[in-house]
Amino acid sequence: MKTVKRSLGTIALATTMIVTVSCKDGKKVEEAAPVEKEMNDNEVMTMNTSKNVNAEAILSDYFNLKDALVADDNEKGKELGLALTKSLQELDVSSFSDSEQNELKDIIEDANEHAEHIGESDINHQREHFKILSKDITDMVAITGTEITLYEQFCPMYDGGTAWLSTKEEVRNPYYGSQMLTCGKVQREIN
Q1: For 182, phi and psi rounded to 5 degrees?
Q2: Residue whose C-alpha is closest to residue 127's, from 170, 179, 90, 55
Q3: Residue 11 above 50 pLDDT?
Q4: What string of H, E and C letters represents the secondary structure of 38-63?
């Protein structure tokens, strides 16, 4: 089942990538937007009565990490990668079916490995691991659900095309940060 879901996801991503038109400015370096003083993705996250509160904590840590990469903050990224490993290890899968538990355990094991690497790496390597981590977190949300609206965003320029999650429609690219801050588009709304 896990292989089928991942294969379908890969096919959907490949199809989207083929249809997607790359960012108009391509490799043009954009001026960095000022750091948002309103709300970042983590502040939008609220603990709720969803099936698994620990999954919401993982999402909160994921969005903090995404925001650090958007801000080109390597040291904060390291710190938040390690924080994410702790919340990943605390995910309680007991309320899910046996097949979902097995799938979640596989997802969390892989996500934890990438979060650990982020906690030890330079920003370019952090972004490489964030790509796979984003896929894992998206797969986790497909099982755990969430009560907040998420936006799967897509950058056609990074590593052949790459997606990530956000709580806002406005694109803030964690793969290029200030170099191409708004490169990407909303691919789909989740929830």
Answers
A1: -105, 15
A2: 179
A3: no
A4: CCCHHHHCCCCCCCCHHHHHHHHHHH
Helix (H) or strand (E) holding 166: strand 162-166
> How high is the pLDDT of residue 41?
52
Give CA–CA dist 101/82, Å, rounded: 23
Q: To the nearest whole number, what is the mean pLDDT of the chain?
A: 81
* Residues 140 and 87 sit within 8 Å (Cβ to Cβ): no
Neighbours of 158 (CB within 10 A): 21
Residue 59 and residue 110: Cα distance in Å, rounded? 16
Tokens of residue 80, six digits: 């938040």
Q: Tokens 């097995």 appear where?
A: 102
Calculate Rg over the CA atoms of the chain.
16
Neighbours of 115 (CB within 10 A): 29
Residue 131: both structure tokens together = 């790509």
Give yes or no for a contact between 141 and 50, defined as CB atoms under 8 angstroms apart.
no
Place of tokens 């097949």: 99
CA distance 42 to 66: 10
Residue 52 is predicted with a pLDDT of: 64
Query: Which one-letter amino acid corresponds to residue 5?
Result: K
- With a pLDDT cut of 90, the percent of the chain lying above it is 71
Residue 150's SS3 state is: strand
CB under 8 Å to 15, separation ≥6 — which residues? Answer: none
